[in-house]
């Protein structure tokens, strides 16, 4: 049988199967009335939908007195099932509608929202963020919608990868030993983790997010530079501290200033930090960070592991085994914290 004939038979067979699935005994095609019915019919989701666990979010009225902040009913979320929302999507009311419908359908009870992204811009009019602000969403309206649906709101704040701050305040930037500002492989600028003004700036944004009603502050890029000619980096405010001491020091200060506001603190870390004993040259050691935060978020992307890691020939083609081994190592490291 020729290849063309074999292909025609396959197409005809698929067409007959489709007609069988969507036809009634009388021959009339019947399509599902809505997306939920469609997903149930074709077994994309179970008929018993897992509903989210509703959570308590504090009052969002501003300004909020310090006494109110300390006594606000903050969420206790024993099981967080979340998704990530960029600031641009957070400003799209139609997309937020879809997200909330999806959350109810899939059992999602948390959303991570970009408050300060890796461009360095703050996502709404911010007193803390100053001229860095770009209006992408109204935080009070967004958080009110989350509160109505029992969604646990997490504010993502990118810390030391900050092209905007570095460009407009070059005295705070990582410099290149050859002159000018240091750039990573994408041509982006970073700020100096040793600089106390950089710490204060990011913590001020985090405190504002907490006062708005975010229940958790998630610090991302809370590390030293990577993905570029790091041997050419010069840190103008460098002192005698190690990189690990600097990163832990930032998180310690952040915790000291944020916890009175009733929020939890989390930090994103490289996936490899779960399994190595050094700081990978970026200042991240799991046990040091774990001592200062409530939640550690290892970025265990199988594509980021080298061939042979964990005795796995190709980690990217064995995602379950890769993630499991990494998290088992993490558990051993931070189990006593």
Describe the structure.
This protein is α/β, with parallel strands linked by helices and 337 residues long. It has one domain: Alpha-Beta Barrel (TIM Barrel). Strands 1-2-3-5-7-8 form a 6-stranded parallel β-sheet. Helix 8 runs parallel beside helix 9.
Characterize the largest beta sheet: strand count, sense, and whether it forms a barrel: 6 strands, parallel
CATH topology-level fold name: TIM Barrel
Q: How large is the share of residues in beta strands?
A: 5-15%
Question: How many structural domains in the coordinates?
Answer: 1
Order of helices and strands: HHHEHHEHEHEHEEHEHEH
Name of the CATH class = Alpha Beta
Going by CATH, what is the homologous superfamily? Glycosidases
Any guess at the CATH architecture? Alpha-Beta Barrel
Q: Major sheet: order of its strands?
A: 1-2-3-5-7-8
Topology:
Layout: H1 3-22, H2 35-41, H3 66-71, E1 82-85, H4 87-90, H5 93-106, E2 110-116, H6 139-149, E3 152-158, H7 163-168, E4 175-176, H8 196-212, E5 216-220, E6 233-234, H9 243-258, E7 264-270, H10 286-290, E8 295-299, H11 319-334
Helix pairs in contact: 8-9
């Amino acid at each position: 049988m020729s290849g063309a004939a074999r292909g025609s038979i396959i197409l005809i067979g698929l067409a007959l199967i489709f007609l069988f699935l969507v036809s009634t005994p009388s021959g009339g095609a019947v399509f599902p009335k809505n997306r939920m019915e469609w997903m149930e019919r074709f077994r994309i989701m179970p008929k018993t939908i897992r509903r989210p666990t509703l959570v308590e979010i504090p009052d969002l009225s501003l300004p909020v007195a310090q006494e109110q902040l300390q006594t606000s009913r903050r969420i206790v979320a024993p099981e967080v099932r979340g998704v990530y929302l960029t600031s641009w999507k957070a400003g799209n009311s139609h997309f937020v509608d879809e997200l909330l419908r999806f959350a109810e359908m899939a059992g999602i009870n948390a959303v991570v929202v970009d408050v300060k992204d890796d461009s360095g811009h703050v996502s709404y009019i911010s007193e803390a963020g100053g001229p860095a602000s770009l209006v992408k969403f109204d935080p009070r309206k967004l958080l009110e919608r989350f509160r109505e649906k029992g969604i646990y709101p997490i504010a993502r704040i990118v810390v030391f990868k900050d092209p905007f701050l570095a460009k407009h305040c070059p005295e705070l930037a990582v410099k290149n030993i050859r002159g000018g500002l240091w750039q990573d492989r994408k041509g982006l600028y970073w700020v100096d983790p040793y600089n106390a003004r950089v710490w204060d700036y990011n913590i001020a944004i985090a405190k504002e997010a907490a006062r708005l009603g975010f229940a958790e502050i998630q610090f991302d890029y809370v590390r030293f530079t990577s993905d570029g000619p790091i041997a050419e980096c010069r840190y103008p405010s460098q002192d005698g501290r190690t990189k690990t001491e600097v990163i832990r020091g930032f998180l310690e200060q952040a915790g000291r200033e944020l916890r009175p506001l009733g929020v939890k603190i989390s930090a994103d870390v490289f996936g490899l930090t779960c399994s190595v004993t050094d700081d990978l040259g970026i200042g991240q050691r799991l046990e040091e960070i774990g001592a200062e935060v409530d939640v550690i978020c290892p970025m265990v992307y199988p594509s980021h592991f080298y061939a042979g890691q964990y005795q796995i020939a190709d980690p990217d083609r064995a995602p379950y085994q890769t993630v499991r081994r990494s998290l088992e190592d993490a558990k051993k490291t931070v189990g006593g914290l």
